[in-house]
Amino acid sequence: MLGRLAVFALLWWVLTDGAADAWVIGAGVILLAAGVSLALRQPCAWGLSLGGVLRFVPFFCLQSVRGGIDVTRRAFSPSLPLEPLLFVYPLLLPPGTARIFLLNTVSLLPGTLSADLRGDQLVVHGLDGTLPLSRDLQRLESYVAALFGLRLGGRDG
């Protein structure tokens, strides 16, 4: 609650250019805004793991750079292999925020893009069928699971 009060007080201060006489009305407005924001907030069914964040951020940055370099090389070197494919990847993450986050981050892997979600299967468009898509997706999924403090079950076969 104190954090919300501080944010709304700062917002009030900015909106009123710090005018001292505005705080007479501002105190009530700040309390009302903080109360309404608490009443309207949605319960959060997930949380982030600090350890998962510390592992995911460097992974994300490295994969983003690798993906950018890969696409750039392919654009300027037509001789590089291009074997587009649609790859079906069985998801272990449960439906919800972590799964949606995974779908939105698949594109950071070199030559990949989320194409469709069919139940518990993710359809990924790949630029090069020789890339280890399954391994890369499993690795990404494990990083996302750790980020959200989730444990993944095993894979069959």
Automatic annotation (TrEMBL):
InterPro entries: Cation_antiport_E (IPR002758)
Record GO terms (molecular function): monoatomic cation transmembrane transporter activity
Domain of life: Bacteria
Subcellular locations according to the entry: Cell membrane
One GO CC annotation: plasma membrane
A UniProt-annotated Pfam family: MNHE
Protein known as: Cation transporter
Organism of derivation: Geoalkalibacter ferrihydriticus DSM 17813
